[in-house]
Amino acid sequence: MIPQLSRLYPDKELELEVSPESAPFLVFTPGNVVLVPVINIQAFVLLPTSSERRPLFQLRARTNIIATIRVSSNKIQGSVTPGR
């Protein structure tokens, strides 16, 4: 899709607008927090003759993000992993 956009709109800037559709869903398990955000992504091409943005496409995405939290030596440590 992106190569086609560069051919359709050569030398034009592309703008992505990302916004949450709703509050993320959180699941707490021992040692982990699973975050399930649902986001909307809109792509626009910026036209050079004005401040107008031409809409190109819109996506709705849902993913899992897993945060693992550990406590060791009086420190809180963690990592974030994209889910499937």
TrEMBL record:
At the top level, the lineage of the source is: Eukaryota
InterPro entries cross-referenced by the UniProt entry: Bactericidal_perm-incr_a/b_dom (IPR017943), BPI/LBP/Plunc (IPR032942), Lipid-bd_serum_glycop_C (IPR001124)
Q: Name one GO cellular component term.
A: extracellular space
Its annotated compartments are: Secreted
Is Glycoprotein set as a keyword in this record?
A: yes
Q: Name one GO molecular function term.
A: lipopolysaccharide binding
UniProt-listed GO biological process terms? acute-phase response; defense response to Gram-negative bacterium; defense response to Gram-positive bacterium; innate immune response; lipopolysaccharide-mediated signaling pathway; macrophage activation involved in immune response; positive regulation of macrophage activation
Residue ranges of every copy of the Lipid-binding serum glycoprotein C-terminal domain listed in the record: 1-84
Tell me, what's a Pfam family for it?
LBP_BPI_CETP_C
Q: Does the keyword Cell membrane apply?
A: no
Keywords from UniProt, A to Z, are:
Antibiotic, Antimicrobial, Disulfide bond, Glycoprotein, Immunity, Innate immunity, Secreted, Signal
What does the record give as the function of this protein?
The cytotoxic action of BPI is limited to many species of Gram-negative bacteria; this specificity may be explained by a strong affinity of the very basic N-terminal half for the negatively charged lipopolysaccharides that are unique to the Gram-negative bacterial outer envelope.
Subunit architecture: Monomer. Homodimer; disulfide-linked.
UniProt free text on domains: The N- and C-terminal barrels adopt an identical fold despite having only 13% of conserved residues. The N-terminal region may be exposed to the interior of the granule, whereas the C-terminal portion may be embedded in the membrane. During phagocytosis and degranulation, proteases may be released and activated and cleave BPI at the junction of the N- and C-terminal portions of the molecule, providing controlled release of the N-terminal antibacterial fragment when bacteria are ingested.
What is the name of the protein in this document? Bactericidal permeability-increasing protein
- The coding gene here is LOC118496835
